[in-house]
Design a protein that fits this description.
With 419 residues, the chain is an alpha+beta fold. It has 6 helices and 16 strands. Helix 3 crosses helix 4. The N and C termini lie far apart (110 Å).
Length: 419
């Protein structure tokens, strides 16, 4: 390690030197020390300032040049060492910022980033050829020539070619072909694009020891016909098997949907004309007739859910309606008149809204309420109620004391009528 003999003076934490603020306000800082008493802390501060920066520069000279910096009075040697240190440091710093012309780009630190910045892409690192990882040379393929080796060689190169239609060719149109070799010399795959107004697109392949095969791609410019895909034409046909539809099946005006077997509907079944069925009808939804029309059956009608007549549910002895709830807060319905009676009890405050056990379907007629006289035998209790909607009534509760009615909470019993 190179030696530095220029040492900093008075640099310990407890050194006898002036504080920086005292030194900056020292009169001698401008005019120098004059005749008189010399104070050690003032001189130590001056010497430390000069020696410290000298030591820093000398350390830089020694480290950057790799040579000793001696306090021997040899100014020429010191100057030479300083210049050498500056030069070495410049080379070290500039090598990370600039390229050396003599290195011919060998001094690039991040080659891939530099190539991307120049827009060269990955092809700049590849050789021209037909091997794996090579860039194909224009004219070596695609102009009617190709290379195709066995699977062991793994050298498969595609080709472009134009094939005019003539009897015996693979495709039914004149086509432009993109072909790639397969694992053996007798295997290949092609994409063929036809010329002309049809704009047909085909895929073809040859397999080992088998005749070549082709298929056609359909697209928005070349839609398949019903016969192309084995479908029925839009103007109708006869369906020999089952038909399943996730949407609607509709017939035109005056047209029927006829079936010699069952018709199953997972949803609604609509008929604007008559539907005559000699077998069973099983429906996952509902059967609905039009205005002025009936659903008529010469046999039983089975319903796993409800049957309605003019919007009203039809009940039977085995399908009785729910007519009452005989609870503390309950209700009862008169099926002949439709009148509903409801009742209940509870602790109610003055002005409290109380819910009926069930909402009256049409209207709440009236509510009668009375308080329990056993609550307070010394006071007069007053209660009243009136319906505010089909589902609630408002209770009024008070006690009479000292000639005044005082709003109170009372235990009350009530009964309401409606339909």
């Amino acid at each position: 390690m190179p030696k530095n003999e220029f040492k900093a003076f008075a640099i310990s934490d407890d050194a006898n030197v002036l504080k920086q603020s005292e030194y900056e306000s020292l009169p001698a800082l401008v005019g120098g020390f004059q005749a008189g008493i010399a104070r050690s802390e003032e001189l130590n501060k001056v010497w430390r300032q000069a020696s410290t920066i000298a030591s820093v520069i000398a350390s830089f000279m020694a480290n950057a040049s790799g040579k000793d910096v001696l306090d021997d009075g040899d100014l020429n040697k010191l100057q030479k060492t300083l210049l050498e240190a500056l030069l070495n440091n410049s080379i070290l710093q500039l090598d990370e910022r600039y390229l050396n012309a003599k290195s011919n780009l060998k001094d690039l630190d991040k080659v891939e980033e530099a190539r991307d910045n120049l827009g060269l892409g990955s092809a700049a690192t590849k050789n021209v050829g037909i091997g794996v990882g090579n860039v194909l040379q224009q004219g070596a393929w695609g102009i009617g020539t190709s290379t195709q080796d066995s699977a062991a060689g793994s050298s498969h190169v595609s080709r472009f070619m134009f094939e005019p239609f003539q009897p015996g060719t693979l495709y039914p149109d004149s086509v432009c072909i993109i072909q790639s070799g397969g694992p053996t010399a007798t295997e290949w795959g092609q994409i063929a694009i036809g010329y002309g107004a049809n704009f047909r697109v085909f895929a073809g392949h040859g397999t080992y020891n088998s005749p070549p095969e082709i298929t056609e791609f359909y697209h928005d410019k070349r839609k398949p016909t019903a016969s192309d895909v084995g479908a029925y034409p839009i103007n109708g046909g006869i369906l020999d098997g089952n038909m399943s539809a996730t949407g609607s099946v509709s017939s035109g005006p005056g047209k029927d949907i006829s079936s010699g077997q069952d018709i199953w509907a997972g949803r609604d079944l609509y008929a604007n004309r008559n539907a005559s069925i000699t077998g069973n009808i099983e429906v996952g939804g509902y059967i609905k007739s039009g205005v002025g029309s009936d659903v008529v059956s010469q046999r039983d009608i089975w319903a796993s859910r409800n049957i309605y007549e003019n919007g009203q549910r039809v009940y039977s002895p085995n399908n009785k309606p729910s007519t009452a709830s005989l609870a503390v807060n309950g209700w009862e319905k008169d099926l002949a008149t439709g009148v509903i009676t409801q009742w209940g009890k509870g602790l109610y405050s003055d002005g409290q809204l109380v819910n009926f056990p069930i909402a009256f379907p049409n209207a709440a007629f009236a509510v009668t309420i009375s308080s329990d006289p056993n609550d307070n035998l010394t006071l007069t209790e007053v209660s009243q109620a009136y319906p505010v909607s089909n589902s609630q009534f408002r209770a009024g509760c008070a006690t009479f004391s000292g000639g005044n009615f005082v709003p109170s909470s009372l235990n009350c019993n009530w009964i309401a009528k409606g339909y």
